[in-house]
Amino acid sequence: MAAVPFVVGDLVDFFYQPRILALTHTFTLGWISSAIMGVMYRVVPVMTKRPLRFPRLARWQFWLFEIGATGLITHMLIGVWEPTWMSAAVIVLSAAFFAVNMLYCVGPAWHQGVSETGMCMSVMFLLTAASLGLVLALDKSYGFLSGSVLTNLASHAHLAALGWVSLTICSVSYRMAPAFLLSELTLPRVAIWQLYSLAVGVTGLGLSLLGWIGGGASIWSGIIMLAMLAYVGVLQSLVRNRRISIDWTMRHALAGVVCLLLSIGLGFSLLWIDPGSAIGNRVAGAYGVLGLLGWVTNLIIGMSYKLFPGFVVGVRERRGWPKLALAELSLLSCRPVVFILLNAGVLTAAGGLIAAHVAVAQLGALVIALGGLIYVAVMARTLSYAYRASVPPAANDPFRILSGSS
Asked: From CA 35, how far away is CA 18, in angstroms rounded?
């Protein structure tokens, strides 16, 4: 977040630059993928009632991922490609270790549970996107790939952003949203077909952009658009049939859906606008901002408000540390500030990019950074109590209530 205001000016000029690539992977690997993997390590074994088959492998996976992602981002930033593809190879190995544990848990429920089916497919997309990223990095050194650099890059980006990240978010949403909302509606059967349609569309789009199949990207983009609109419809029906009021988790989810719809529109427009042109470059930049910061980041922040304090409580209980209530781990007063700053900043930055107003885009980036850094500080405080036995000052109140820790 701190780097965004310093890089957004480059994004107005051309998105395929070392600093843009490094920052994008800081978000996609360092923030988004790390958060999703952490949630899946907690949620999937509980959801499937199958503990991790190889817990030691999970430790290796964590450190390999951190080393690989840090190395890739650093060497991508300075434009040195041999260490970049070596780091990418480490990430592929880490993704394979992650897949071994996740598929052991969710594989037996393939085509039986909606969320389990979606996560099975998303883990395979993670492996595919990571492997293609390695191939693209190798190509920078050895130049063996045919086709356009931009279309090859677009294939990798969509396999990662739609196949891995968005498919996982849809799958987790189908498990979490009914519980968060206490919805009276049973998850409709269309949900599982929405996941299949998204997977088919992303596969087709990825292969089409690589030039491996014919038919054009427009058909596959249309399938993806319909699949994501179906997701919005399912989520809307759950919200409409809720039994509790909308909280900040669902506000972030709804704001994310708005950004998703806007990014779908911009992504579809790139079928007719050359991404290498001046206007195409600006649209592609806004598409990325709305997708990564508006859609995905909103969803992760919203879910983190519900999930992360509970994770910390569970860790403290297993270690025998003093119990804490969920409310004692959360600074609720900061949530509206984060929501307003993040979403106002995303819309302002995206608008500035499309209009080629650097000052407006930088203002939006500053607002995003402020909201993001406030969130980071607040959530770092919450997560820190999983690593120390001390308690927040509010926990010393003799009249405090521990019902949230049960």
From this structure: 24
Q: Contact 388/403 with Cβ under 8 angstroms?
A: no
Buried-exposed string 364-400: b where 16+ CB fall within 10 A, e elsewhere? bbbbbbbbbebbeebbeebbebbeeeebbeebeeeee
Q: Please say whether the dihedral angle defined by the alpha carbons of residues 71, 72, 75 and 77, taken in this order, is positive or negative.
A: negative
Q: What global pTM score does this model have?
A: 0.92
**Which of 105-109, 197-201, 268-272 has the least mean pLDDT?**
268-272
- CA 292, distance to chain mean position in Å, is 7
How many angstroms separate the CA atoms of 38 and 303, rounded? Answer: 12
For the chain, the first-to-last Cα distance in angstroms comes to 34
- Amino acid identity of residue 233, one-letter, is G
Nearest CA among 26, 8, 305, 292 for reference residue 164: 292
Catalogue all structural domains in the chain, each as residue range(s) with its CATH number: 1-172 (1.20.210.10)
> Residue 389 in 3-state DSSP?
coil
Helix, strand or coil for residue 277? coil
CB 306 within 8 A of CB 351: no
All residues at 6 or more sequence positions from 271 whose CB lies less than 8 Å from its CB, including other chains: 217, 218, 221
**Residue pLDDT, tens place only, 200-228:** 999 999 999 998 887 678 899 999 999 99
- Residue 139: other Cβ atoms inside 10 A: 16
For residue 176, give both structure tokens: 């979490």
Q: Tokens 């199958």 map to which residue? A: 50
Cα angle 326-331-337, degrees, rounded to a multiple of 5: 140
Q: Distance between CA atoms of 127 and 166, rounded to whole angstroms?
A: 15
DSSP run (H or E) holding 9: helix 4-13
Q: How far apart are CA 218 and CA 204, in angstroms?
A: 10
d(CA 371, CA 281): 26
- Quickly tell me which residue has 């968005």 as its tokens: 166
Helix (H) / strand (E) element for 41: namely helix 34-48
Contact 359, 342 (CB under 8 A): no
